[in-house]
Design goal:
Blueprint (H helix, E strand, L loop, with lengths): L7 H15 L2 H7 L5 H24 L3 H6 L2 H24 L2 H8 L2 H13 L5 H21 L5 H23 L6 H22 L7 H25 L5 H7 L2 H14 L5 H27 L2
Length: 296
């Protein structure tokens, strides 16, 4: 694996901005009034699927089928992991606080680091281990006070999302020489199928309040679509654990946005932990940018 790619600095910026786009999920979800999490997931994923479908069709034109099915095994594995992450995350937003969901999602770098070492044989720079150590301290500070026994379903859903997101990240790294957007296409398709089956099983309707439907589609195209595209582009230039650490800007910005617009207040210890994680991200970004300049 070539760690010293000339566009490393670009990768850092792309993944940082991906986290910022993702951070809007809590605010948008809190605007939804009556739709169930499965209904939201269905239209969020379906709108993302059509966005990716048209993007890939225009990009590949007559070679669309060949383009999508190239390296289909890795794309399907990554898509399944991503679809699982989408499913877990929406349910986490429903059954626990935005801060709790994002804080637990922050364990993804540790899962990714382990998978990256075991599956891809990646080696980590010394500063990544330091950033992981401080991230663990920040996460422990947050979770120690935030997790409540009465909200186990939401926390478990967030954990599933973290596992799925890490699996997708590793599959992207294993597939980094190919176009990565088919992974997003398959991920949105899996999540659409998951949620559609549950909606039918629960006897709910696919038609509901128009404003809820619009917000669900905005989550698919704006919050999730653009963010995931930026993340996927950045994945070409960084190793797995760096991707997750840099995208943790979502964990910081998301609770702040919900606090500003909905007065869903993070606790004092939550803020302290968030600042520790933010410091780790800043150090990670600076070191990554400097490394990119050094090896240009």
């Amino acid at each position: 694996i070539d760690f010293y790619k000339p566009n490393r600095s670009l990768g850092v910026l792309l993944v940082l901005f991906a986290g910022i786009f993702w951070s809007t999920s809590g605010v948008i979800y809190r605007l939804i009034e009556i739709a169930t999490p499965w209904q939201v997931l269905f239209y969020r994923s379906l709108s993302l699927f059509f966005m990716m479908f048209f993007w890939l069709f225009i990009k590949s034109r007559l070679d669309f089928i060949q383009f999508v099915t190239y390296s289909k095994k890795l794309n399907l594995i990554g898509g399944f992991c991503l679809g699982t992450a989408f499913t877990g995350y929406i349910n986490a937003l429903e059954y626990t606080s935005i801060a709790n969901a994002m804080f637990i999602l922050a364990i993804a770098p540790f899962i990714t680091a382990l998978l990256g070492i075991l599956i891809l044989g990646e080696k980590l720079f010394w500063y990544i281990w330091v950033c992981m150590f401080f991230t663990a301290i920040g996460l422990s500070t947050m979770v120690g006070e935030q997790i409540s026994l009465g909200r186990g379903l939401g926390e478990f859903s967030a954990l599933i999302a973290a596992l799925g997101f890490s699996g997708m990240t590793v599959s992207i790294r294993a597939n980094h020489k190919n176009d990565l957007f088919p992974t997003i296409l398959f991920g949105s398709l899996f999540a659409t199928l998951f949620s559609g089956v549950v909606i039918i099983f629960e006897g709910n309707s696919f038609v509901f309040k128009s404003s809820d439907l619009i917000f669900s589609c905005i989550m698919g195209v704006f919050q999730l679509g653009i963010g995931t595209i930026l993340y996927t582009l950045g994945a070409k230039y960084l190793i797995s654990v760096e991707l997750n650490l840099l995208s943790l800007t979502e964990v910081i910005v998301g609770p702040v946005l919900v606090w500003i617009f909905f007065e869903e207040n993070p606790t004092k210890m939550g803020l302290i932990g968030g600042l520790i994680i933010l410091l780790s991200i800043v150090i990670m970004s600076i070191m990554g940018l400097n490394l990119g300049k050094k090896f240009k």
